[in-house]
Model the fold of this input.
Amino acid sequence: MKQSRRDFLKLVTGIAGGAIVLSSMPWLNTFVKGSRAGKAASDKVRLGIIGVGDRGSLLLQTFKQFEKTGNFEIAAVCDNYQPNYENALKLTDGKAAGFYDYQKLLDMKDIDAVVIATPLNEHAHIAIDAMNAGKHVFCEKSIARTIEDVNRMMETHKKTGMILQIGHQRLFSPIYIEAIDKIKNGKIGKVTQMRAYWHRNGNWRRPVPKDKPELERKINWRLYKEYSAGLLTELASHQIQVANWIKGEPPVSVIGSGNIIYWKDGREVWDNVALVYKYSDGTHLIYDSVISNRHYGLEEQILGDKGTIEMEVNKIYWEDHPSAPAIQRLVTDIEKDVFGSVPIGGASWTPEVGIKDKGEFITGNYQMDEVQLELEGFVNYVRDGKAPEELTIQGYHATIWSLLGEQAINENKLITFENKIEL
Amino acid sequence: MGTRFGFVIPDCDHDKGEKLSLLIKVEVNNLEEKLSRFIPSSQISYLNKYAGSSPVEVDDDMWNVLNDCKKYYEITSGAFNIALSGLNDFWNDKQDIDNPENINHAKIILEKCSMNNLVLDQVRHSVFFTNPLIKLDLGAIGKGIAIKKAGEILSRSKIRNGFVSFGESSIFALGKHPNGPCWEVTIPNLFNENEIAYSAKLNNNSLSVSGNTSNNSRSGKTHIINAFTGVPVKEFKTALVIHECPVTAEALSTAFMQLDENQISETINKFKNIRTAIIKYNADRQPIIKEFIN
Done:
C-alpha cells in the first residue's frame, strides 16, 4: 500500500521531534512546520526542467503527481534531443513552453527555479548560468563531472545565494530517515563497517536509432569518460551519500580498482568496480558494483556491534538473536552428505524466534515515493527562497568522493582529499 | 508450548512430507489446546478453574497424562511435580532468589503443591483437587507427549529414519542418519557453546535434556523449581535422559535436576534400557560428567 503524504508528515513530525534529527536532518523541517503552498497566485512556484530524457521525464511525471496541491507549475521544458523534447511537451499537455536551448529557458523572467537532469558533464555550465540568472537549482546527482566543475558550482551557489539542491532522494526516504535516526540513537551500537553494492545484469545501453549512429555518445553518455564516471557517478554516489550521512562526515581516503571485463563493446567506463573508503575513526565503507550479475541487487548494509541495518530492504537485524536452529543445521548437513552431530540443549532451547532471522522492518512506511517528497521539499525551499545548506553539502561530499574513487582507480593508489573548499 | 517443533525425514518425497507435516501439526496443535495452561479454553485450564470445587471428568488423553504424571511423581519421590505452577508464578517476578523472605514464602506455597492433593477417580475418570489452590502445569511433560505422538505418526506411515525435535531439548530419533549409523547429538558447555560437553548416539530412542543456561542461572530466572525446597534450581547443571519412551525421558530429566546421585541411581533402576548423564561444572567451567546406565 502506498503511503500518503499525511503519513509521511506524521512520521517526520514524530522523528523530527528528537534533537538529533532536528540537527542532522534540517531539510525535513519544511515538512514539520506544515505546508506553505498557499493558494495565492503570488505563491505559485514556476519551474523549468532542463534535460527531459529518462530521468528528467520521470521527475516531470513525479511533479505532476502533486501539482494540484503543490501550487506550482511546470512552465517550461528544454532538451536538445528532439524525441525527448516532444515527449516532454506531451507530458505537460502542451502547457509548458518548449526549448532546445536552455539559455532561452533561463531568459524567462518568471521562472523561479530549474531542474537539471542532463548528462553529467552538462550540469556545471547550466547550473552556473541558471544561478547567475537568478534561478534556484535542483540538479540531479552527481553534481558535476570534475572536481573543478563541482567547486565552480559551489562558488556560484555561495556567491548568488541561490538554492543548489542535489538529487539524493534517500535524504527524503522514510526508511532512511528512520534508519538513520536509529543509528544515531545507538540502536545498532557502534558502527564500524558499512557495505554497499549495486549490481545489475545488463549492458546499461539506451537504444540508438539505426539510421543515426552518430548519436551513440549523446544517448549513451554514461558509457564514456568525457561525460560520466560510469558506475561511480551514476550509482555509487547515492550510496556514498548514505554512508557519509551515517558517519556525519565525508571519508578521509579511498582506494580501489575498476575494470572492463564483460561489456567489451567500445565503452570507456568500468563495468565492475571495488573500492574501500575510510572514515576518520577507521570505519570502512566497502563498495562494489557490477553490471554482469544482479543476484545481490542493491543494498547498503550498516554493521554495528548490536545490530545490522539493510536500508534498501527496510530491515534491521539484532546481534543477540538465537543461533540457527539445530534442525536447520541438520538439514544443511544432510544436503551436503555430511554425517554431523546435532547440537541441542544449549541456550537456544528456551522459546525461540523463527527458523531464519528475517529481521524486523525499520518502518512500515516503506512504499512512499521519496522522489516526490524530495521534489515537494524543493518547491517549498524555492517558495522560501532558501534551503538548508546541509542538503547541498551532502551532495557535494557524495560527488567529490565518487570522483576521488575514480581517481584512486585511475592512479592505482590511496587517495586523500587535499583541495578542500570552504563549505 | 512456547517453543519450536521440527522434524527431518531424509528419504521422503515432497508430497508425503507435506502430508506428514500436516498430520503432526494437527496432532501437536490439538495437544497444546488441551494441555496448555496458558490457553484459557484448554482442558487443563478448565481443571485448574473448577477441579478445586468439585470432581471434573476428563477425556481419555487427559486421563492418561494425569495418571502418567502421578506415576512419575511417585517414581521420582516427588521430584517430578506438575502442581508447582503456583511457585513458578511466584518466582516469575522475583529478582532475588536468595532473599529469605521469598524463600519462606515459597515454602508456604510449596505445602499446597503436593500432588497428593490430586485425586484421580479411577472409576469415573474424574479429577479433584483436595486443596483448591492447586494449579497444574503440564509444561514439564508436554513436549514428551507431543514427541511421542509425532513418533507414532511417523511409524504408522512406514517412515524408517527421522529426527524429531521439540525446542531442541526433546528429541526422538527414528532409525539413522542417511550418512551415518545413528543420529548423533551434542550438548554444549553451558559456559562456552563452541565446546562440546557431552555427545550421545541415538537410534530408535528419545532424549530429553533439562538444564540451566549460564544466562538464566545468573539472573535466577530458572524455569525448573526444586520440588523439595520450592526454590528455583540455581546450579549450573544439565540433566539428560535417553529412553525409548519420550514421555519418560522428559519427566525424568526434569526430576534429575533436583535429585542427588543416589536418588538418580535408585530411580533409573526402576527402568530398563535407560541412560542418564548429569553434567556439572568445576571452578574452571569445565564439565564434570556422571553417567548412569541401566
About this structure: Residues 347-356 of chain A have pLDDT under 50 and may be disordered. The two ends of chain A are 40 Å apart (CA to CA). The interface with chain B takes residues 323, 325-327, 330-331, 333-334, 337-352, 355 of chain A (CB under 8 Å). DSSP finds 15 helices and 15 strands in chain A.
